[in-house]
Design goal:
Protein name: Protein LemA
Order of helices and strands: HHHHHHHH
Number of strands: 0
Membrane topology: Single-pass membrane protein
Organism: Cupriavidus numazuensis
Number of helices: 8
Subcellular location: Membrane
Helix content: over 70%
Family: Belongs to the LemA family.
Radius of gyration: 27 Å
């Protein structure tokens, strides 16, 4: 004679199936409303932003040696050298993180500071053209080369960030995913888009 199953096993098994069904429905619903897309695109924006910050920091790290090298030859360019030093100090004093992307004003301040530093560097490199001995210095030429490479990487990083933000913002503004954005507070993110964007994104001229 076969033993009968415990009376409680059937309700327990049914409850287990019900939980799995509810989870499957929830996952399907979240996928359909774009929740998963928001997760992936938000991470893509953060990664692109991190690369922008890293490349700007790389440039900032090059500047002290560049200024000191120029100072050794261009002793009469005090104003230009001080402008670069002050611009670097202003740019590096701004604390940035993924949270900056939630604050358009903070993002704008960061972008403006980096743009001013780009301008100061351009003026410094233009001044160096007046000092043949400086241009012939091996250390200076190496720093110029590193700066040129870094400026190119900054441009690429900015372009990738702009593309990532564009994809994210389209999702946040489109129907019906904009409803998901409102529910989960996925706000649009700021991008590099100001009147002088072309001037800011143009690397300083590096001549040999």
């Amino acid at each position: 004679m076969r033993a009968s199953l415990p009376l409680s096993s059937t309700p327990t098994r049914s409850a287990g199936w019900l939980r799995w069904l509810l989870l499957a429905c929830l996952a399907s619903l979240l996928s359909a409303c774009g929740y998963n897309d928001f997760q992936s695109k938000d991470e893509a924006v953060k990664a692109a932003w991190g690369e922008v910050v890293n490349q700007y920091q790389r440039r900032a790290d090059l500047i002290p040696n560049l200024v000191n090298t120029v100072k050794g030859y261009a002793t009469h360019e005090r104003e230009t050298l001080e402008a670069v030093t002050k611009a670097r100090a202003a740019a590096t004093s701004i604390q940035v993180s993924p949270e900056t992307l939630k604050d358009p004003e903070a993002f704008k301040r960061f972008q403006q500071a980096q743009g001013e530093l780009s301008g100061a560097l351009s003026r410094l490199l233009a001044v160096s053209e007046n000092y043949p001995q400086l241009k012939a210095d091996a250390s200076f030429r190496d720093l110029q080369s590193q700066l040129e490479g870094t400026e190119n990487r900054i441009t690429v990083a900015r372009q990738r960030y702009i593309a990532a933000v564009r994809d994210y913002n389209v999702l946040a503004r489109s129907f019906p995913t904009n409803l998901t954005a409102m529910v989960f507070k996925y706000e649009v993110k700021p991008s590099f888009a100001v009147e002088n964007e072309k001037a800011i994104s143009t690397p300083p001229a590096v001549k040999f």
